[in-house]
Amino acid sequence: MAKILYALSGEGFGHATRSSIIIKRLSQIKKTSQIHKIKIVCGGKAYFYLSKHFNDVEKIQSLHIKYFNNKVSGIGTFFVNLVTLPQQIFSYIKIKRLIKEFKPDVIINDFEHLTSNVAFFNNIPLISIGNHNVISNSQISIPLKYLWESIKSKLVITFVIPSSNYYFITTFLSQNITATSLFIKPQKQIIIL
Q1: Most C-beta atoms within 10 A of its C-beta, which of 7, 49, 79, 181?
Q2: 105 has pLDDT over 80
Q3: pTM score, two decimals?
Q4: What is the distance between the alpha carbons of residues 184 and 131, in angstroms, rounded to a whole number?
């Protein structure tokens, strides 16, 4: 049995729906006739969704994205998250306490910024899940007119997930992967965790 801390972004429902399926599957896997012990930390819409489906869900402050005229506003996003800095600090302390008490064997992270840092400073293996890993862990040819957007994306991803032991990448693209990864590209066969 493994003790897993599963952390995910609370922005939108995409991370929550993907994580819900993975958490359900992980909770069914038995090792030495015992199921994995899973604690979930998330905020925002993910907390709203997952707390209805799972018992052990802790609420933390998530990062949020601000939009203006149907486009991401970098300045707006920065300031909307700056206002939540005290809650971010409280959530960081809450996660550190939870890790001290729960003692997870691994942290699975679906684009959540606090646990990736706590994992690094506490020497806990981290698995990063998500399509964002293609941007930070592959060689993609970017047209010059999108270079600045590409740089900003990589900076944000590096801020959220500064390092990971493994990257679980979900994508339809074939790219040159540069990190230690588990690369899942949908094919004719079904891959089950």
Answers
A1: 7
A2: yes
A3: 0.84
A4: 10
